[in-house]
Amino acid sequence: MYEEHRTHDGIRMLIGQMEDSHLLNTIKSYCDKIEQCTRIIKGQSTPDSALIETFNPEFSREAVRERAQETIRFLHQRIQPYVLTAVMRGLGASVTPHLTRAYQCSGRLSTNLFELPSSDEIIDGNTSAVVEVESENYQFGDF
Question: Which listed residue, 25, 59, 124, 137, has the most CB atoms within 10 A of its CB?
Answer without folding.
Answer: 59
